[in-house]
User: Fold this.
Amino acid sequence: MAYTGRLRKVKTISWQNNKLIIIDQTRLPGQLRYLCIDNLKTMFMAIKEMKIRGAPALAAAGACAVVLGIRKSKAKKYLDFKKELDKVVAHIGSSRPTAVNLFWGLERMVKQAQYNSNKPVKKIKEILLKESKAIIQEDSLICRKIAREGARLIKKGDNILTICNAGILATIDYGTALGVIYESKKQGKNIRVFACETRPLLQGARLTTWELKKMRVKVTLICDNMAASLMENKKIDKVITGADRVAANGDVANKIGTYNMAVLAKFHNIPFYVAAPLSSFDFKLKTGKDIPIEQRDKKEVLSLFFKQPIAPKNVNVINPAFDITPHNLITAIITEKGIVRPADKANIKRIVNLK
Amino acid sequence: MAYTGRLRKVKTISWQNNKLIIIDQTRLPGQLRYLCIDNLKTMFMAIKEMKIRGAPALAAAGACAVVLGIRKSKAKKYLDFKKELDKVVAHIGSSRPTAVNLFWGLERMVKQAQYNSNKPVKKIKEILLKESKAIIQEDSLICRKIAREGARLIKKGDNILTICNAGILATIDYGTALGVIYESKKQGKNIRVFACETRPLLQGARLTTWELKKMRVKVTLICDNMAASLMENKKIDKVITGADRVAANGDVANKIGTYNMAVLAKFHNIPFYVAAPLSSFDFKLKTGKDIPIEQRDKKEVLSLFFKQPIAPKNVNVINPAFDITPHNLITAIITEKGIVRPADKANIKRIVNLK
Assistant:
């Protein structure tokens, strides 16, 4: 079910009358279309097809999907309910393997259920709904903290390169990498953003330029392969990206092309920043080599949104959705608890343990 | 005028019954459509709109366009004819500013006219037609020489990355960078090509995969921003590209994204080769900084072939068609007279002066 009525404020995901309202991001920038979702099957496909995407938003999306998946459970006893819950959680987790935030959101829901296992199942369901709402609300606050931390790194007049979309549409309503940009603009720093279009799904062209224009930030769209030339011509002062998963040593998995940017930034002596909430950190993984990389459908490369073909049929394709940027190419990671610089194991540990 | 009848052999450009036959490369890979051109206006637009493209092919295209432009001249005296010729040549030269081969082709025609200025205009016209045919024929031979030289650099089992299309479609019938690949395959070296799709006009996705499949070379299509990740994962042994213009010091202008590849190759210790005929060298230009870079229509970035929009309307765009790779990032330049290694001024001079 979908409606196209305008909402006052862009909100990536929210609960309204027990239904989940998400922006269908595959329709942007042509159409701002909200989907009204009341069942797990639809929500699962929305995540898989990237109607909702972005690491932080996936934490909320995963948690909300749990609510949709278990609210019709007829289980009376906790153990029966828990069995259903585990099944639902495993199913949701299979939708997107790389962004750890999805698993972080799912885990939080499971923990909340376990913590309240002595309560009636009906009550647990209420608690889980509340928890999903808390995750949504916390994300807003965390993004604002990241933005304030990151803005300290930005100078007046900076030209900032970004890839994919780590903005409002990737979170609840402010963004990580783009949050830093919004905060810098608010502080009166006259900045310009260069947005890599981000093949194959063009999140930079479709989403980042759309929301930056909406937020009145100066933005110039480039093809991914133009970044090196811009850097060489001294047009870029800083690079900021989001992250889909950060390993314990500071290695970062992010949208394919991020590693490319990081190598170029190193070569041209340009600072390379990653903005990410602590929910994107996966301390179970020692290095980036342990991060699973999602391989997506070759049709994403072979055609534009499964419509216009751009290559011969049956040509071989590889389509990794992410790449790994080693921590030694990252100048600093911007988190809600402060800036991790250099982005190494010891510094990450220190930040996490801050009160 | 166009016909879609199959020809036995792909030929990028040829004379047939006093008409110029070119493949409309904007229709590939969907349609192999030949255009039959009998006037300068149509040919000018075909060059400008990249129905025919590729540096070496543009030498022939420019020369043939001259024939179309002057063959209806009513001039009786050489001086009147020369005035018309100069006008036609200047006009053709304005179609694409970066590939020097276009100007090389035009200059050769002018020189031929000057050399024969004592002959009747009718005779000069015949000589110019002959000269355009000679350029077409020579290109085939030169490409084969480049291919043989380059194949010496290729080992059995090499995985080769390329960008844009420097193949049959960029020349007359063999290619420069891809010619090296065809020759290596002929020599029984079991190679695999990774083709960067090459945004915005997708020559890699549309043209390179199409012709490699036709030539039965194993090819895998990737988005431009995936190359770094492939290199990091040891999937690439060599990079080979074409060139649109080579400065006297070995700096190379080539399709946007080439410089990106060169930086990545350097970072990952992968040899980076450029294959180009001597007609691509411009000794008047000391360094790559002097090479004019064509800026193309923003619509190329904002939509796919002016059809499906992929970004909000009115978003700022930059769209340089080429970038400059400094010679110190180039392992060697492969020419018809041999391999220039390192690709510096002294070595280029030496190769040019070889008999």
